[in-house]
Structures are given as C-alpha cells and as structure tokens.
Amino acid sequence: METLFLSLTVLLAAGILPLLGHRLFTLMKACYVALTITGCVIGLYSLCPISQLPSQSTLVVDWLHIFQLQFSLDSLSTFFLIPVFFVCPLAVLYVFHYMNKKAEHARTGVNFFFFNLLIIAMALVVIADNMISFALSWEIMSLASFFLVLHEYEQETTRRAGYIYLLFTQLGALCIFLGMGVGYGYTQSLDFAPLSTLPEGLKLWMFCLVLVGFGSKAGVFPIHIWLPYAHPAAPSNISAIMSGVMIKMGIYGVVRFYGLLDISSPVAGQIVLSFGIVSGVLGVIYALGKQDIKKLLAYSSVENIGVILIGLGVGMIGATQGNTGMAIFGFVGGLLHVLNHSLFKSLLFLGAGTVAKQTGTRQLDQLGGLIKRMPLTGKSFLIGSVSISGLPPFNGFVSEFLIYIGAFQGLVLGGMHCVFAMLAILALALIGGLAAACFTRIVGIVFLGEPRADNSAAAKEAGWTMTFPMVILAASCLIIGVWPEPFVHYAFKGVETLLVQTTLDEVLLLEITQKMALASQVFLGLFVVLLVARKFLYRGKQVQSGPTWGCGFTQPTVRIQYTGTSYAMSIVEFFRPMVRLHTHYAGIKRIFPSQASYETHVDDIAEQTLIERIVEPLLFLLGKLRWIQHGHIQLYIGYIIITILVALLCISEGPREILRGLL
Amino acid sequence: MINILEVILVLILLTVLLSLGSTRLMALVRIMVLQGVLVSLIPLFLKSHEILTFGSVVFYLAMVIIKGILIPALLYRAVKHVSIQREIEPFVGYHASIVAGLAVLLAAVFMANSLKLTLPEGRELILVCAVTTMASGFFLMLARKKAITQVIGYLMLENGIYLIGNALTQHHHNLYIVEFGVLLDLLVAVMVMGIILNNINHAFDDVDTTLLGQLKD
Amino acid sequence: MISFLSLVLALLAAPLYPGIILKVKAFFAGKKGPPLLIKYYTLLKLLQKGSVYSTSSSFVFTLGPVVSFAAAIFPLCFFPFAGSASLVSFYGDVVLLFYIMGIGRFFTVVAALDTASPFEGMGAAREVFFSTLAELAIFAILILFYRLTGSLSLNDYFHGENIITLAGVSGALIVLVIVALFMVLLTENSRVPVDDPATHLELTMIHEVMILDHSGPDLALIELGAFYKLFFYAAFIIQLIFPFTAPFSILNMLLFFILMALVYVAVGVIESIMARFKMDLVPKFILTSFALVFFAVILTMGVLQ
C-alpha cells in the first residue's frame, strides 16, 4: 500500500513538473515521460506481491474533520490497477513524439498535468473503500478527463464534445450519488461494508441507480452518446486512455457494488445481461456504419463494454442460481475482457492517432495503402484488429471463450435463465462475426490496397516513441492469447473477493484455459510450420509482380476500390429498424448531367430519440420558465435564501419519517 | 418410437415459420393448404379420442375438404382473378418476421408452462402450437399490406383456435359442432373477401389495404 | 493411433469428393465430365507453378492463404471420424474451432482487400456478412447439442455412449439440425444457391472473386483449404445421420467414406437443379437455417425433452 502511494506521489510530481517547466519544451517532455513511467513501474511493482497474498491492506486518512478517507487494496482492485499502470505509461511515452508542437507548450504542460491527475484519480477510484473517498476520486477523474477532452478548445466541435461529456458524466455521477444516498439513508454510515445489510428491494433499487450512473461512464448503449463525440475530439493518447482504461472504471463500479450489495435476486444479472446484449450488438453495428476512424473505435468500445457486461451478467445469474461454473466463467471472462480491451483498444486508438497525425485525416474513405508506408503501425494495428475481433490465438478470444463456456453452462438452468444464457451465446456469436466485419473493414480500407488520396500516399512512419508503445501492446495481446493462465488466475482472485459467500473452485477454470491455450499454441505452431512450408514450396519458382486483375477492365484508378461505406452497407441495412440510415442522392438528370453526388450517413437512434423525446420537450418546458431569469441580482439572492430554507425544512425529521414509512 | 402427433405438430410449427418468411403469395397459399390438412389430421392421433364413428369420419373429411381444397381454391382464384402481384408486400420485413415468429414460439412455450393447465398427457405441445399459430396469424394480419394476406392470417388464426379446442377438450362432439360453425363462417368470409377484393381491384387497380385509408372522410 | 490414421485418411481423401460434385453436375448436363481425380491434378499443377503478385498488395496478401489453410486443417484434428476418438479434444473445443475458422476467414478477406480490386472488395463484404449470419446458426446448433448432451466437444458429440444421432431419442430435432447444417454448408463453402463458383461474372461471386489474384502454390493452399472445410461440414452431417456406435473397424471407415459421397452428391444435385439466389435473398436463406435450429432449441425447453 505504501509503495502504491509512493507511485501516486511520483505521478503527481511528474504531473506538476510540466506546469512549471513547460518553456523548456523537449526537456520537460523527456523528464515528464521518464518520471511518469517510473511512477507507473513503481505502481506495477507494488501490485506484485499482493495478488498472491490474500491479506488486505487499508489506509485511513481524516479529511475536513468530519470525513474519513479510507482506501484499501484487495485483489479486485489489484486486477483493475493492472491496466492503469500498464497502459498509461505507454500512452505517456507515445506523447513524446505525438505532441510536438512547440508553440503550444503551455497547453501541452496543462494537458500533461491533467493526464497524470487522471491516472492518480483512476487508481484512487479503484482503491477507495468508503463512499466519500469514492465520490471524491470519481469526481477528480471525471473533471480531469473533461479538461483533457478540451485540449483543442478553440474548435467548436471539441467544445461541444466536452460539454456533452461533462453533461453525461455529471448526470451519471448524480445517479451514483443518489444510489449511495439510498444506501446511506438506510445504514447511516459512509462505509461500504454495511451495504450488504440492506433489504433486498432496496438493494435492487440502489444497484439499478449505480448501474445507470456507471453505465453512462462505461458507455452502455442508450447512454453512450458522449463516447463518439469525446473520443474523436480528444488527442489520441487521451482517447486511448479514456477508452482503454477510464471507461473500465464504470465496469469496476458495477462489479464492486454488486459484490458489496451481495444481491440474491437474479434480476440484477438479467438487467446487466440485457444491457450487455443491446450495447454489444448495436455498438458494433454503429461502428460498421461510421466513417471517422476514431468514432468507429468509440462505438467499438460500446460493443466491448457490451461483451464485458454479458460476461458479468452471466456470472451474476450463475452466482444467484447457485451455478458456480457459470458464475466463475462469466465473471472471469468479463474481468479478463476488461484487461484485454484496455490493451487492444488503446493500441487501436494509438494507431488511429498515428494515422490521423501522419495523413491529416480520419476519414476512412480517404486513406489506404498505409501498411507499406507505415509498416510498424500497420502490423500492430492488424494484430489489434484480430484481437478485438475475438479471434484465436489472441487475447480477445480468451475472454470471449470463457464467457461462452459460462453461458453454455447456464443452459442447464430452467425457464428464463436458460433463455438469457441462450441470448448471451447468440449475441456473442453475432458480435463476433460483426466485429470481424468491422475490423476487416478498417484494416482493409485504411492500411491495405492503394491510397485513396494524396495525403495518405505521402504518409511516413511516425517516430519511435509512437510506434514502440503499439508494438508492446500488440505483443502483450499475443502473450495473453497464448499464455492466458496467469491472467486468468489474477482475474479469478478478483472474483473471489467479489463472491465471498460462495466457495469457488479454480481447478476446472484453469484446466479448460490451459487446454484452450495449448490448442492456440498448436495453431500458432501450425501457422509457423505452414509459413516455412510455403517458403519451401516457392523455392526456385518464378515470382513476378504485375497489376491487379481488373476483371477485364484495363484502366483502373484508385477511386474504383471498394470503399468502407459500401463494404458495410449491406450489413447496416440488414439491421435497419435499429439503425437510421440516411441517403442523399442527387441523381443524374438531363442529357448532359452535371456532377452527381451520393451521400449516406448513419444516425445514432439513441441520440435522435434523446433529442426528439427528451431534450426538445425539456427545452420547450424550460423556455416557459425563462421569466425566472431576469437579471436582478437581489432577487437571485432571494432565491438562494428560499432554497436554503426549503432544504433545511426537508432535512428535519418529518419527511424522513414519511420516506421510511414508504419503504 | 416416433410419436406421429408430435411430428405433425412440429410440421405445423414449421409451416407457421415458413408462412412468416415466404415472399410469394402462391407459396403462402400452398403453405396454408399444408397447414390446413395437418391441423385437420390432429384429432385422429389424439390418444383420448375414441374409435372413429361415422359422424366423425364425415366431419374429418369435411374438414380436410374445406381446409385443404375449398378455401385454397377460393384463394387461388382470388389471386389469379384479381391478377395480384406475386410479391407479398410486408410492413415488417421477412427477417424481422422470422425472428418475431421465433420470439412468439418462445413466448408460447413459456405461456404453456406457466398456465399449468391440467392437460391430458402429450397435449402441452398442442397448446404451444395453437398459441403460436394464433399469434402468428395475428402477426400476418398486422404486418402485411395486402388484403389477401389478411385473410390468410385470419385462416391461420382459425387453425390456432381449432388446435386450442383440441388441446383443451375431452368431449369432442360439442367442440366439433362449434368448430364446424366457425369453419363455415370462415368459408363465407373467404368468399366475401373474394368478392370485395374484386371490387377493390376495380376501384383502385390494386389490392393494397393502405389505399383503403383514402375512404375515410 | 487409429485416430491419427483416420485423420491422415481424411486429409488424403478430401480432394477426391469435389470431383464427385463435378461428376454429378456433368451427369445432369448429359456430359461425361472431368475425371474423378481432377482436383488432385489441379493441385499438382498449381504446386508446380510460380506466382504473380499484384503491385498493390503487401505481405498481408501472402498471409491469407497460409492462415486460411491452417484454419481449415486445424478443425479436422478435433473431429472423431467414423466413431474413432478424436485426435485431440477438450471441453469447449467446438467454440475454439469455429473461431479458428473465423480467423481463416478474417485473413482471406483482408488479403482480398489488399489487392485494391473493386470486385474482391465486393466479395469480401458479402463473405463477412453471410458468414456472420451462418455463425449464428452454428452457435444455435451448439446450444441445442449442449442441451442434448451437456457437452461442448466434438468428441463427446460423436464418440462414446451418449452420441447425437438421427436414430436417438430426439431424432426429430436432429432432422431440423441436419437440414440447417446442410444450408450452412452451402453458405460457408460458397455453393449454389448462395454462391456460384462456376459463373463467369465476377460481380456475382462471393468466394471465388476474393481469390482472383492468388496464383500458384498460394492458390493450391486455398483450394485445398476449401476442400478440407467442405469435408469438415460434410463429415459433421454424416455423423448426425449415421451413428458409428460399433467399435472402430476398417468396415466402419469404409462405410464412412462411402456415406460421405452422399453429401457431395446432394450438393451436386442441388447445384444442377437450382439457380443461384438473388443476393438479397441469401440472408433470408441463412436466417431460415438459424430459425430451424432455434426452433429445435425451443422445443427442447420444457415440451419435448
């Protein structure tokens, strides 16, 4: 625990440094990067022994005389700290060449400060052990990330994205605090421990409230709207961390509160599973429909959050139904996917950032052929894409495989549970196929073929600090895919602290993982053998190169290549009722046609519904109350006094009695 | 070893799914022939029913003739005579319809399990089948544009009602009288529909029911 | 040992069967048709040639054939041919196998996109779409099998005491599975009515158009991989139709290989008497196969046990 706080102190120091010394730009960056990496390495080191020892360590600090800040580290927190301390330093290293505009030195310094504040806040969220410390670190995390999104604040779209993000994150926080308020109202204690004594109905209400709150942070489907705005607006290292690590804090919240509340009704699991299925399927469909690489990746985050929630939902249903196999495989799969997603999603965001920086565009249909111009980025991106599609022998498959096994074990249950397990399996299968479609699209259009525009033809490989983190992340994707046992073990340790009531047996889990890993290794071996055999087959043969066979067409241009839009169109159209697809076609008219245009875009149904059904009526309603705002400061003071009086009246005993009577 | 009743019921369910997924009108009519014949065969294989009497034989024959020959013939005539286009125009797409059919089936299984009726042995599947057929009949009426598909949906609904009667009753005579009445009503309905279709066709040059919306004040 | 032997036999025999399809089609067309061993000759010819690579393509293009071949050969190691135990098996191997096939597809598609050809992109887009839907049907089959046997391994499905077969207790459900699986076979292996490999127009193809630019040994790997994939699905169907409960013997093996020809004849007959679907009907076709299996799954829930 002390080592952990040491690492956080180092991180804080590393964050303050650029604020002071931003004038010496390159030196400041080098020091910042070195110090932050040191901090994270210390952090990783501090985690090492604890994951083997079952003992908890706790730290209590008094704050403002009335509150106690309490932090403790158990194996669930440890598991969530791994991505924080592993992915963040890589994103920091990436910054060295990524933010190289010397003119913006002050802004870069501020960005670095908030970045480290975000890392610290995330670490604190994970180890917070009572409501007040959790709320405090949660808010620091949200605000720090808000300022990070606003990095390019002079652009209108960025500011808009920032405000949307702030709105969602604060509404989410409101729900979380409301949920905590429900708990506090009953237990009269800010500690987490007494929450398990709540009555069952109250537990479920509290869980639903915090689920909505954490869901808005994690990007669960109907409340994911900020993701596709904030991620493209933020710099790529920021979106890598936000999408790879920060949104996982929402998942951590769900898991932690589920463990604390110790809910015995399967409804919680069913709700989580349904959210997971909806986010997973719709997330990947919208990802298919998007043009902007970073928007696409943002939607793909929604999809992966869906996969994680499917795993957790399966686990929750299993835990409440006494089906320990289902519980273990579901939870472990879900948790492992948290780690996996943080690896490949940050890899993909870093790759997208490199592409955007080197070519100057994020539009899919203007890129192409980059793997020959940026080989390292291309190869890492390819590996990341295979991993995120959940294909063996990479890490995405391991977690999806475990979730599959969990869901299959749920098929023996009767009634509704069986249907949910079935839906989970089918949703995973659908998500798997669609994710493969989505990522063959992005790899194929961006990195393969011929460049579709001049700027991508002229692109060059980025500096080593940008490619090196991607290579590391790609390598770790393969390592987890081929040797998953230790990571599965860590995830299992995390699940153990979650489900204290039931005794869990790790043997079956490890056995199946081991065999699966062995099969993946054999497949990898087979692949290598075949690669060698292919070399052998080509020995002494004539190998020529020529133009692509144009099926009889002899004047090909790069413009006739299949575009990302047309690649995905038939799939998107298939899911039409759930996706709003708009096409504008100015057709060919007259004998000598002028330029024809064809445009199509996919609108988010959740966003549209939100605007039509909630925002516009709300604006209309609030427009009626405009007379309250009239500009006289005296009257405003009057409002404040009245509000305080009303609040004081409400706090007095009477209403609380009524509330208790209702419950 | 293989229970013929179950096979027939599974086949009926398959015809229901097929009817939801079929794109051609004539194919739909053919599916309805198959469904009608299968449904009218059901009572023959019910365990509790007695040996065939003269009355019941006549009844079954009449059923098969009406459901398998008479009504399809009328439908066939309507399709030919009104020269309706071959395609069924859906409000709800075919893919969605098939998935909806599966969802209905799933719901029916749950309903049959949760109703906990004291049914004679082996009748649960009939109940499931009946509920699915009825609900899909409604669905066809809702989700397709043409008047003729609405009639077919109604026909399916009737098949479902007949199956429910089979599942629930022990005394078959009463049921059959009622059922026979319904069937005759249906026959008349199909005939009337034929005439109306003809007239709609004259009035609008198409049999799209959405056009009927123009008739309101 | 026996498992290994049967695997080797299967690997050797797989290219024979597509010859049967050609023979059947020739029979329907009133022609003599190519010799039965035509596919072996084709493979030999391809292996002796060199290759021409597109200037647009990168190393990904050469990875395509290798990965897709590895992904086609790998599942056969897990398959219990003719009642012999599988070479390797573990709880959950079916999930792995279908995902391994997925990675094969991933690289085929990516290799197709690497050529910068509009036609290959079109084929790739169709391939990913249709195979996604087919995957849905396959996992519905796995759900059904789990409900029937409580297992997740090919070996447990087809080898030992409690095997899934048409003649078993839930035979009626297996009929549905066989029909659905046959539809999936046609889809996944790009046969008529989903795809027509023999058409002359690239615009209308799915799989063939994706491998237009491959040549020489690369093409041989792809072809051989395609034969293995077809063999896998055909064997799956045969194991469902005919239970090999008797202890392993040469007779069993012989019977298995003869029965296998049946599936290929069926494919050939379908190719001869049917036309290819319109592209927008293909999703419906695959969805029907899913509906059939899911229907069987629902029937296992409470009503038919």
Q: N-to-C terminal Cα separation of chain C, in Å? A: 37 Å
SS field, number of helical segments of chain C: 12
What is the tally of beta strands of chain A?
Answer: 5
Which percent range fits the helix content of chain C? 55-70%
- Average pLDDT reading of chain A: 88
Q: What is the chain-wise order of helices and strands of chain C?
A: HHHEHHHHHHHHH
Q: In the residues of chain A, how many domains can be counted?
A: 4
Question: Nearest-angstrom radius of gyration of chain A?
Answer: 26 Å
Secondary-structure content class of chain C? mainly alpha
What spatial order of strands do you see in the largest sheet of chain A? 1-2
Please summarize the sheet with the most strands of chain A.
Answer: 2 strands, antiparallel
Instruction: List low-pLDDT spans of chain A.
Output: none
Query: Helical segment tally of chain A?
Result: 24
Protein chain pair with the most extensive contact, residues per chain? A-C, 77 and 77 residues
Mean pLDDT of chain C: 88
What global shape of chain A is seen?
globular
Quaternary assembly? heterotrimer
- Global Rg of chain C: 19 Å
How does the major sheet of chain C shape up? none
Describe this structure in words.
The complex is a heterotrimer of chains A (663), B (217) and C (305). Chain A has 663 residues and is mostly helical. Chain A has four domains: 1-173 and 221-252, no CATH class; 279-535, no CATH class; 574-618, no CATH class; 630-662. Helices cover 71% and strands 5% of the residues of chain A. Chain A has 24 helices and five strands. In chain A, helix 5 (131-149) packs antiparallel against helix 9, helix 11 (293-320) packs parallel to helix 15 (395-409) and helix 12 (324-359) packs across helix 19 (485-498). Chain B is an all-alpha fold. Chain B is 74% helix and 0% strand. Chain B contains seven helices and no strands. The model of chain B has no long low-confidence stretch (mean pLDDT 76). By secondary structure, chain C is mainly α. Chain C has one domain (2-300). Chain C contains twelve helices and one strand; from the N terminus they run H-H-H-E-H-H-H-H-H-H-H-H-H. Chain C has helices at residues 2-13, 17-29, 38-48, 59-77, 93-113, 118-149, 154-158, 171-188, 207-210, 216-241, 250-273, 282-300; one strand at residues 51-54. Chains in contact: A-B, A-C, B-C. Chains A and C meet through helix 14, helix 15, helix 16, helix 20 and strand 3 of A and strand 1, helix 4, helix 5, helix 6 and helix 10 of C. Strand 3 of chain A pairs parallel with strand 1 of chain C, so a sheet runs across the interface.
